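Thread: quick sanity check before group meeting

JM: Hey all, I'm pulling together slides for Thursday and realized we never actually wrote out the predicted structure for the chain we discussed last week. Dropping the sequence here so it's in one place. If anyone has concerns about the input, flag it before I start.
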Amino acid sequence: MKTRVRFAAIVAILSFLIGAVTERLLTYGLSFDALLTLRHAIFGDRHLEETPHVVVVNIDEDTFKATAFKDIPSALWAPQFGTVLDALDAAGAKVIGVDIIFSTIAETVVRGHDRPLFASLHRLAAAERVVLAKTDAGGSRTFDQHRFIGSVVGFQKNIRSANVHIGLDGVVRYVPLWHGVGAERVPSFAPTIAQRAGFDIGQLPENLRHLAPNYGDVSVAPVYAMQDVHQCAVSGAMEPLANAFAGKIVLIGAEFDVEDRKSTPGRAFLESSNPKLLPCGTESKAERIGRRTIPGVFIHAQAVNDLMRGELARFWPGWAVLLACTVMATGGSVFSIFLRAQTASLLLAGTLLLWLAGTVASASVDWFAPLLGGVTAAVAAFLIGLGLRTFVIDRERRRMALALSRYLDVHLAQKLMESDQPPELGGEAREVTVWFSDIAGFSTLAEKMDAKELVTELNAHFAMIGQAIEAEGGIIDKYVGDAVVAIFGALVPLPNHAAAAMRAALKVQEKLRAEAGKAGAFRIRIGLNTGSCVVGNVGSINRINYTAIGDAVNVAARLEAANKELGTSILASESTVRAAGTGFVCRSLGAIHVRGRAEEVTVHEVLGPQSPQSAETVHSELPRLP
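JM (edit): ok, ran it. Output follows.
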C-alpha cells in the first residue's frame, strides 16, 4: 500500500505539472474557444437581436455596385462619407466609430471635394461623438489618419488605436484596453467609444490590460449597408434611419471576401450577418460570405457590447487554475494506481464529464476555466499511472505472487497480496475434505536411487499430484517427506469438496497406473476423510502456516496408512463417500480400528467413476446424507 501511495503521489505531481504547463503555454486560448462554443451549443444566443447596443454600417462588395459609388475610386468617397455621417448624426446615433483609415485626401487635387467629410468630422469631433481608428504595425510604423483629417478631429483626442492581439495560431482573442503607458496611457478604440456612450471606464480593474471579446451570439451586431444609408440620406427619409440608429453606437467598417478578416474564439458558431434592408434603401440583397472569419469591425463591436452590457470575460485566477489541475491530476492518479482498469476508466470518464459540465456552467456566468489543462492533467495521470502500474507495480505484484505461490497455494498467495494487513493467527471451523497420500516403499526406492535423481523424480511426482488437486479446486497444505497433505473446501468454496477430492485421487492413480513398470515409477496410497476442522493460520507471530487442525485430519492420515494393511490404493471414510453422493464406484470394507483412535471408522475403497454398467454397486446401498 505504501508503494502505491508513493507512486500515486509521483504520478499526480508529474501530471499536475503537465496540465499546468499545457494550459499555460499551449491550450490557454483553446480552452476559451472550446468553452465559448460549448456554452453557445448548450444555451444558445444570449441576447435578442432586437435590443443591440452596437449597429454596424458596412461597406461590402455591393457598395461598389451602387449608383452613388459605382466607378468612383474609394479614395474619392469623401462626399458620400460626409452624407452618411450627417445622416447618422441626424438619426440620433450616440457615438460613431469609424474603423476606416482615411490615409489620403483629394482636397489638394480637387479643391472643395472633401469639405463635406471635413465638416461632418469637425462637428462630431467637437461634440466628442466620433472616434477614428489608427493601427500600429510594430516599432515606429503607424497607419494613421491623414494629418489634415487629424487636425480636423483634434488629432489624438478623437483618434484611437484599433489594434487587436493576434495569437500564434492566428486567432484574435484579446483587444487592448489601453494604448501607451503611465501618464500617457489612453483608452483604445473600443473602450473610448463605450466611454462616450456612457460606460464608466474607471470601473475596470486597474491591472486589466486586455479585453477578451465574450462572443455569445451567432450575430455580433445588426448590419446595414453603406449604400442603403446613403440612399436614405439623399432621399431625405430620416424616419427609417432614426428607427435603425437612434440611441445606438454605430461602427462604420468594411466587409470584403479576403481583406481584414480575422479568426476569433467564437468562429465555430459566428456567422456573417446579411445587411438589414431599409425601406428607403437600394433594396439590393448582399450575398453572405460563407467563411468562419469576421471583419475586424465586428471584433470591436463585440468589445463595445461587452463593456456596455457588463459582460466581461474573466478567467480563473492562477491559484484556482493550479488547484483545478491538482485535483484532476490527483483523481486520474488515484483511479489508475488503486483501481482496476475498467473501473478506473469509467470513473475517469465520469470525472471528465463533471469537469466539462462544471466549466461550461462557470462559462455561463462569464468565468472561464482551464478546461483543456484540467483534462490534460487527468488524462496524463491516468495514462502514466496505468503505464507505471503495468510495468512496475503490477509486474512486481506478479513476481511476488509467483514467488509466494511456490511456497503457498496460489489462492492463498493472491489473498495475501491483496490484503492491506499482515496475516493474523487464528482460524474458523469449516467442513472440509482432507487428503493424505504417501509413496509406497519410498525408503527402499530412496536407498537405490541417486539423491539428485530422486529429487528430480519427486518434483515431477509432486507436480503431477499438485496439478490434479488444484484442477479440482483443492490446495496443497504441505509436503512431508514423500507425503502430500491437501485440503478441499478451505480457501476456494466448492459445492462438493468430497467429490472433488475423490475425482482428484482417481486421476492421480490412473496416471500412475499408466506409468507402472517405468523406471522410477511410484505407487502411492491415498486417504480421504470429510469432517469439521479449524482452518486458518497456525504457528507463531514470526512463522505461520495455513493448515487444517482437527480429528478429521488425523483420520485421513490413518486411512492413508491403512491402505497398506488392506491392500488398497484409495481409502475414503463413510462421511466422504456420503458427501460425494452418486457418481463413484466404491466397495465397503466395513468398520476398522485406526491407530490412536478409540472409535471405529467405516471405510470404503474408491474404485472408479460410476458408469452405466456399474450403476448397481455397493455404493448405492449407502444411506444418503440429509
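AS: nice. Residues 2-28+316-403 form one domain. Residues 2-43 form the longest helix (42 residues).
JM: adding both to the slides.
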